[in-house]
Amino acid sequence: MTQRKLIVDRNNPTIHKQINRTTLIDELANQNPKFSKQDLNQLLDQLFEYINEHVYQGDKILIRNFGAFIPRKVVSPAHKLENYNKKEKAEPSMTIRFKPSRTVRTEFNHHISRKKKIK
């Protein structure tokens, strides 16, 4: 059995499981025995590389019934303060925003509400 780290959110005392890449590959391999762990590892590498490359180019990646990876330009608050009185503008940096699909949000909220009713 794989070992998982436990995270406790101070605002929400329920325990959350953190699943790392190795655990994810192990669980996918257990559910899909026809794929080797090496194949699954390569698949994840290719998926993440594809997402990073296209989002970096400014493309929005939409995976139906999962969510969207959206590029965003951000300027850090500290940089804003430094350049407040200067004429030059701060260069924004790029980040990736993940927006879960309605299906994922509904399933997640349904799962959370069932847990609350059980307690």
List key phrases describing it:
119 residues, alpha+beta, 3-stranded antiparallel sheet, two-stranded antiparallel ribbon, 4 helices
In summary, what is this structure?
This protein has four helices and five strands; from the N terminus they run ββααββαβα. By secondary structure, it is an alpha+beta fold.
Structural notes for this entry:
- The protein has 119 residues and is of the alpha+beta class.
- The chain starts with a strand and ends with a helix.
- Helices cover 45% and strands 23% of the residues.
- The longest helix has 20 residues, at 37-56.
Tally of DSSP β-strands: 5
Our measurement of the CA-to-CA distance between the termini, rounded to an integer number of angstroms, reads: 27 Å
The value of Rg in angstroms is 20 Å
Query: Numbering strands along the chain, what is their spatial order in the largest sheet?
Result: 3-4-5
Q: Tell me what portion of residues adopts beta-strand conformation.
A: 15-25%
Number of helices: 4
Main sheet makeup:
3 strands, antiparallel
Structural class assignment: alpha+beta
Approximate shape? extended
Mean pLDDT: 79
Indicate the percent of residues in helices: 40-55%
Uncertain parts: 1-9
User: Order of SSEs, N→C?
Assistant: EEHHEEHEH
Reconstruct the topology from this structure:
Layout: E1 5-8, E2 15-18, H1 21-31, H2 37-56, E3 61-63, E4 67-74, H3 77-82, E5 93-100, H4 102-118
